[in-house]
Amino acid sequence: MDKLFAMKVFIAVEANNGFASAAESLSISAPAATRAVSALETTLNTKLFHRTTRRIRLTEAGRLYLVEAKRLLEDLKALEAKVTGAHLAPAGEINVTAPILFGERYITPIIAKFLVDFPQVSVNAYMYDHIIDLIEHNIDVAIRIGKPKDSSLYATTVGYVGRVTCTTPQYLANNHPIHTPEDLKHHSIVYPTSFNEPAVWTYHKEGKAQAIKVKPRYQCNQNRSAIEAVKHGFGVTRCMSYQVADELASGELVSVLTDYEDAILPIQAVSLEGRYNQEKVKQFIGYVKEALGNNKYLNARN
After folding, report:
1. Mean pLDDT, the chain, whole residue set
2. pTM value?
């Protein structure tokens, strides 16, 4: 069995969601594609696909093998280019995920520039405010706020953010002063929430945590909506600094309780392979690091 050929067929079957369409993309017969994958499964002594009459789906072993097979073929292509003296420009798909608002404001412009600079690359972006599994969703790069909890992942720090409590200058001028977290009890609170957690904001002063139970008058599961409510003159909210960077810079919003805010959090580009990433992934992470490194609102460390 030609194992490299079988790997290519396996990758094509997953990409095309079927043996017939994969065979067509490789200009081989459907039986030849089926035999190649079956031989690969026999060699590995494990099933790579769950098969039914209507669909196929990767097994857990198949998802792991897909990542490694793609990397191996990319490394082989890079080695061949290096030996022949050819320049191997990034090509193929990159799957990226990021928090919704952060992705829209900061990652989307980076993706656009990357696509312009590398015409052979295409990007699939998945914007979620929850953490998704990189292997299960075939993600190449995840932009995450905070340190990854999974020690098997590789993370590159590309910036820093913190939390900020904010309101409009007009609201602040017309309401009770906010000097300490306790003062929030006298204010209208706009609370971004997933509705499955208590309404508590935790602040820190001289190393001591201070949890304040607030009584929201407006709760919403989208940060953007909470911020818009405050911008329209209603109340006080607390969010990540990047979410209101433009508004703080223009003076539309002002921050309060800055001496009580938490320590800064790293912005990290997370991947499965670290230094063994495919060249296109390394290049993309480099673009993210350079772009965010030039943004002063994403690099304040104190």
Report:
1. 87
2. 0.63
